[in-house]
What we know:
The complex is a heterotrimer of chains A (about 160), B (about 325) and C (about 425). Chain A is an alpha/beta fold. Chain A has 4 helices and 7 strands, in the order αβαβαβαββββ.
Amino acid sequence: MHASLPDVDPLIARLADAIAPTLTPDTVIVGIHTGGVWVAERLHAILHCALPLGTLDISFYRDDFSRIGLHPQVKPSNLPFDLEGRDILLVDDVLHSGRTVRAAMNELFDYGRPASIRLAVLVDRGGHELPIRPDFTGLTLAVPDHQNINLSRLDDGHLTLTLA
Amino acid sequence: MNLQLTPDGRLRHLLTLDGLPRAILTQILDTAESFMDVGEREVKKVPLLRGKSIFNLFFEPSTRTRTTFEIAAKRLSADVVNLNIATSSQSKGEAILDTVDNLAAMHADMFIVRHSQSGAAHFIARHVAPHISVVNAGDGRHAHPTQGLLDMFTIRRYKGEFHNLTVAIVGDVLHSRVARSQIHALTTLGVPEVRVIGPKTLLPTGVEQMGVRVFHDMEAGLAGCDVVIMLRLQNERMKGALLPSAQEYFKFFGLTPAKLALARPDAIVMHPGPMNRGVEIDSEVADGPQSVILPQVTYGIAVRMAVMALLAGTGNA
Amino acid sequence: MKIHIRNGRVVDPMNARDEVADVFVTASKIVAIGQAPAGFHANRTIDAAGLVVCPGLVDLSVRLREPGFEYRATLESEMLAAAAGGITSLACPPDTDPPLDEPGLVEMLKFRARNLPGPRVYPIGALTQKLEGKMLTEMAELTEAGCRAFTQADALPADTQVLLRAMEYAATFGFSLWLRPQDMSLARGGVAHDGAVASRLGLPGIPALAETVALATILQLARATGARVHIARLSTRDGIAMVRAAKAQGLAVTCDVASTHVHLSENDLVSFDSHLHLVPPLRSLRDRDAIREALRDGSIDALCSDHTPVDEDVKQVPFGESAPGASGVELLLPLTLKWAREMGVPLIQAIDLVSWKPAQILGVPGGNLAVGSCADICIFDETAEWIVTPKTLASQGDNTPFLNHPMQGRVRYTLIDGHIDFEAPH
């Protein structure tokens, strides 16, 4: 564990503080599997959202399919609400190239036409390859290309960030 | 069998379920599961195979199978071309290989092949360039792997696990490519007891060596079964001196409510279709509560999507 | 021309000879073995040190594709291929187009063959007109034209009474019938041996019964009519047992197998390769092993190639649509040697199966190296290793299940009638 990686809970609390003023009763939170769902679950609880949490698996929308094939474990996407005209808060754990978010947006648009999508990420590690920027960021940290920053969930539900 | 796999063990062609590792069969079933959800959305498409060209090469006509492959391919956003090649216009093998070569030159990425000769899909797969995948949609009596897979998907959906099941396949196994594929899948997935039930004339020589128990007495064969799979009986069998009549066949090998009662009370009844009501299966059973024949059809699309997605994703970009 | 074959290992089954010795040829005859005749000056000396010198091979079934199938292969090409295989006499089946059912066709074939380099060609005449299995051919006239025996293509006539009459008629003159033990109705629709492999592959099967039922018919009719019968291409364990029993009971019957069936079985069919589509079909391992054993104990009298060259068009199709048959005249020798090596059978016994024994079945001179006999000689390198490819085969038929297989044993020289008709490039 890197000495300078902060605890996750305070980061999520900061995110929630920044997001709260922008929410309406009709906003839905959608997390991207797998780490983004963990973060979204926390936010959903802290922000007391009335509408259920949505989850997205973007395996079928990745742009590197021809190269690496299908991920062996595809979880179902679950969006238990109508997307038409909806404000969506899309949540992911780590923003890197931006391709995951692009895939997620493509998938959302296959379900319907939202009014707006805003992006909340726990960590923005830089290395953006697409014009995608987060609206809400827990932590901005430049991570060199040869390293990875990962969100893990321990058995007791505790979330931690690690650098590998 | 090696023909089907890349050197690192991924699926390159789907020609037969015989010799495919259990992990690959399971992978296909799991992937199909996720595609079921896609089928329940309003937008039933995913962009996985966008830009890919899939050619349906049906040397033997079939509307059902071809249509499900077409739907499956389109749901993956692939371009689909249908070719129904009447066997009368095809004089020799040159025609098959020439056809295949011409289509490959039109940037085909995948061929879905149905042919009346056993081994036809193997024949084409041996010939195509490395970046092209071949899916066997039925070759003679030999194999119908996607049907076998969707039948396994059905069983898994209703029964959960394979390791404690008794499955019976009833009817004309001799002429059935579906039955052969089912037998390979069932044994590979670990079903402990696979039975074939039929008159001697309709069971292949040495079928026990495929890992099944042979029954000529349907009542004995159905006892304790969790899954009963009925096979279609074709009229030609009477002409070939294999059977005297459909009536006598139905009496001894047709599935009636009384015979079904010999299986377990929660047994499911399957049929790869199309059904001959009153020949191999009673309408009461076909339409009854234990029949899963209709759902079988919907699973076919998800399974074929899974197969095509897995083949296309075996990186050749 | 005087030829001196020096220092070769002379293997001559008929004369029980297996020793290093010199062989001397003058014009078309072997004039001496061992010591040169007085005043012998060789025009050509062949250094056969390290090579085997044996009688030229006698192949009981080689399709030359003339008349009618010249697009598949020609007389010239196949005779040269046979010579390259060490063959000095061959029997060709009548299933040409038109079939060899008239003396004129037979004479024409013999005439053409005589004027080409290559083995002596002995046509086997059609048993029935057009090979239709209904009306007899003029067997006596055909024999005068040069036919050594009569056959009914790949199966018995559907009408058993016709077979009975044909046998009675042949017995009248002492003619030989070479019969394929295959019952047409039991074999109908089948393309592979009816067993676990064909069942798994979904290929329509030809049961062993198709052979044994036909054999039972043949043997009974032979016993009843006294006709001389040769069983062409056995493939089953039970069939071999039936022939063995018939011989033990004193029936004068002989039989052969194709060299493909000595090595291959139904298990080789897994890839649906139509080069393995043969008639009779490749059977189970038990059948194959019975064949290998029966060759050793003499129950099977001869090995032949059953050479059937076809153009690739009819093989580059799904299995069930392909034409059956394999090219193999150049593989008869190495496949025989392979069997002998694997079974621990002495070379002289192996050579017997492809020279002296078939010569006797065919009823022609040759198959031996007796002093005074025709100089039909095969000189081969037992150890030479080569790979079977379209380039290494002289035949126009590349359709062999042994394509890309390694072979051991290759012909260096073939002398026919004292003339070197084949010499391997160095």
